[in-house]
Design goal:
- The protein is of the alpha/beta class.
- It has one domain: Rossmann fold, CATH 3.40.50.180.
- The chain is built from 6 helices and 12 strands.
- It has a 7-stranded parallel beta sheet, sandwiched between helices.
- Helix 1 packs parallel to helix 6.
- The protein is globular and about 40 Å long.
- It starts with 16 loop residues before the first strand and ends in a 12-residue tail after the last helix.
Length: 204
């Protein structure tokens, strides 16, 4: 049986839409988190990473090795499906609207990347309390400016405590809009609870 056939796509909407936002040093965290999440959790995972052109073919196989969920690059107007992992192509931004992912050429605000921020802003509008933002290892502060939007609509936010490059998680924490500061292993276990938890998530 093909690997992807073991994780059938559902006509139902995803119970949560999880953005894993990362940059330098985030690969190990992606793998750790996806390894911990059941393949039938009902969640959709969207990996929004800062990647250079020419490296798109490397990430997919590394993630397929740790999960039986289908892993693929985002295509234009692709519908968000539960129990899947999709990857942002290099040199692109992405937004979500009407249950679909919309690609555009990557923009920058000065020298700082804003790809994760832009996606999370659209995710807050689209998913409300089903939105989950996970800020992982990386330089600068991408993602931080959108965490307040996620919290206002009842979404859930995480920052990585053990990040090898701590700028992105640190800036996220400083906003005061991060619910849980956890290691990548702990984030994986926490996300595994989401399929049965009502929105917003409580781990207390």
């Amino acid at each position: 049986m093909p690997k992807h056939a073991r994780c059938a796509r559902s006509a139902k909407p995803a119970t949560r839409i999880v953005c894993l936002g990362g940059s330098a040093g985030a690969l190990a965290a992606y793998r750790t988190i996806l390894r911990a999440v059941p393949p039938d959790s009902g969640m959709a995972f969207i990996i929004v990473a800062h990647r250079r052109l020419g490296f798109d073919h490397l990430l997919g196989p590394l993630l397929e090795a740790v999960t039986s969920m289908p892993v693929s690059a985002i295509t234009q107007r692709q519908r968000v499906q539960p129990n899947t992992v999709v990857l942002l192509p290099a040199a692109h931004d992405v937004a979500i609207a009407g249950g679909r992912l919309v690609l555009s050429p990557r923009r920058r605000s000065g020298r700082r990347p804003t790809t994760i921020t832009r996606f999370l802003q659209s995710l807050a509008i689209e998913a409300g309390g089903r939105a989950v933002a996970v800020i992982l290892s990386g330089f600068a502060d991408d993602g931080s400016a959108a965490l307040g939007s996620i919290k206002i609509v009842g979404g859930t936010t995480f920052a990585q405590a053990n990040a090898p490059y701590a700028d992105m998680p640190r800036h996220a924490i400083e906003t005061g809009h991060v619910d849980f500061v956890l290691s990548s292993e702990e984030i994986g276990r926490a996300l595994a609870l989401l399929s049965e938890a009502p929105a917003p998530l409580s781990l207390m």
